[in-house]
Amino acid sequence: MRIGRRVFDLWTLVGLGILAIYVAFLAFPLFTIFKEAVAGPDGTFSLAYFQRFFGERYYFNTILNSLKLSLATMAWALVIGVPLAYFYNFFEIRGRSVVQVLIILSSMSAPFVGAYAWILLLGRSGLMTRFVRDTFGWEMPTIYGFNGVVLVLTLQLYPLVFLYVSGALRNVDNSLLEASQGLGSRGLGRFVRVILPLCATSILASALLVFMRAMADFGTPLVIGEGFRTFPVEIYKQYVGETSQNYGFAASISVVAVALTAIVFLLQKLVALRFSFKMNALNRIQRRRAKPLAAVLMHAFTYLVVGVSMLPQAYLVYSSFRKTNVFGNFVRGYSLDSYREAWRHVRRALPTTLTIGGLSIAIVVLMSILIAYMVVRRRGVINNTIDTMSMLPFIIPGSVVGIALALSFSSGPLVLTGTMVIMVIAMCIRRSPYTIRSSVAILQQIPVSTEEAAISLGASKLKTFFRITTPMMANGIISGAILSWVTILTELSASIMLYSAKTQTLTLTIYVLVSRGTDGPASAVAAILMLVTALSLTLFMLLSRDRDLAI
After folding, report:
1. How far apart are CA 74 and CA 158, in angstroms?
2. Residue 417 exposed, middle or buried by CB count within 10 Å (0-12, 13-18, 19+)
3. For the chain: N or C, fewer Cβ within 10 A?
4. What distance in Å separates the CA atoms of residue 32 and residue 405, rounded to the nearest whole number?
5. Which residues of the chain have pLDDT under 50?
């Protein structure tokens, strides 16, 4: 009977409840999309959709294009993010706090918003394009196509590399570097042979995250890709259909995409195991002044990267104050007309965004705390299954999640498509891995003896969990929550498959305005979204004990 009581204690019931949620809103939708992919027109088993996908080069090329795009974005993000994190953490950089805020802010908008801003700057009629053409008679390289998509995604995603590598560098013990210096390893040689291997796990993790985010991005290739088509765009085209809808073919592309991303994820995990180790800095690195020439080069690199990555956001804010004609296009002069027009959309979209985001982040934080505790403190079959399932959304593109939920809950006993409930479910499923992973990481650093001491003094296990353990996890929870919150605010790929007129968020509003060609109101709404995300970052800085954000 003792075993029976242990099996059915409170934490087991919590675990079964969370497992049921993942089965209902993740496993079942994925099964539905697989069933749709292998069902022929008459409802019998068929692989016709897969034969069509692999048999027609146009469709198969969308996967190859996505792989090419993701690898290029990952490489450039590492080239920019790793040195930037090294300079930031090892040397004195003037305006250090401002640099960090601007780096994070540059990632706090939907990628397609950055793509739209670059069109205003470097498009065929963009500001910089016209200036160079009229002044020097020279045509600038086009922003459209593969190179433009890589540029936008790199500037959007390199901050993730910066944050991951910064977190690793703060755990490097300075005595290791002093020892390497004593053995004659200095400068670039020490960076390559000592520092990079010490940060290898974090570099690989950040590379995987950038790869997955680039692979799943929908808005950027749609806005500036033109002839360069990726599989998220093709899934959307097949599901929505300009002339006809083909749910089965969209589902088959989704299955191929999930299989591909799962393979990449497993390969990364296998490689990461070779470099897996833990560091805890007893003697933290002290930032120092670089030599004059090196200092100039470091500052030039840092300011150039930050300046270019913030240029689209700055220009969007500037554009939001320009005059527009009756069609919403820019003309000479400045006014607040764009904000007046934008307010008609914002007054409905902003409360919806905050409501969906607020409900989602509250659920994400609660589930993350519970899952982290079960995974770290109460290992077992159920909790290990939950841990695995909670990471699945990390490797599943947003468009696939959106279609899976739409197909699963558009008919039958539980109809949710078009409601706010399914939007909240999608956000929770999509964005919980950030908070779960950071909560697990911080709990692993908290000794279990702290909880045992509280229990020995008479506190119940439940009281110990909420009064002792959870407050000690606060910094890790907040770090993950702010990343989840920002990605919820800027979510497009899943929500575009699920929204209705009543559940249109700020990001979806920008997308609709851009698709209509109303540049002024679109810029104004984008500026408002950036303000909301900036205020979120400010709130994090106030709540966090550590002013440096790292993962």
Report:
1. 8
2. middle
3. N
4. 9
5. 1-6, 281
**CA 157, 121, 146, 223 torsion-angle sign:** positive
Instruction: Please tell me the chain's helix, strand, coil percentages from 3-state DSSP, rounded to the nearest 5.
Output: 75, 5, 25
Token pair for 468: 């002792």
Asked if residues 103 and 306 have their Cβ atoms less than 8 Å apart, the reply is yes
Domains of the chain in start order, with CATH, are 47-224+279-319 (1.10.3720.10)
Beta-bridge mates of residue 91? 288
Contact 497, 236 (CB under 8 A): yes
Q: How far apart are CA 436 and CA 366, in angstroms?
A: 10
Question: Could you give the CA distance from residue 538 to residue 478 in angstroms, rounded to a whole number?
Answer: 12
Tell whether pTM > 0.85: no
Phi-psi region of 544 (alpha: psi -120 to 50; beta: other; left: phi over 0): beta
H/E stretch holding 322? strand 322-324
Contact 158, 309 (CB under 8 A): yes
Give the count of beta carbons closer than 10 Å to the beta carbon of residue 412. Answer: 7
pLDDT (tens digit per residue) in 478-517: 777 887 888 888 888 888 888 888 889 998 898 888 888 8
Q: How far apart are CA 107 and CA 489, in angstroms?
A: 12
Could you give phi then psi for residue 340, rounded to 5 degrees? -65, -40
For residues 145 and 127, give the distance between their C-alpha atoms in angstroms, rounded to a whole number: 19
Contact call for residues 172 and 198 (beta carbons, < 8 A)? yes
Distance CA 473, CA 467 (A): 11
Rg (CA), the chain: 24
Residue of 230, 143, 223, 308 lying closest to 510 (CA atoms):
223
Cβ partners under 8 Å of residue 116, min gap 6: 223, 316, 510, 514, 522, 526
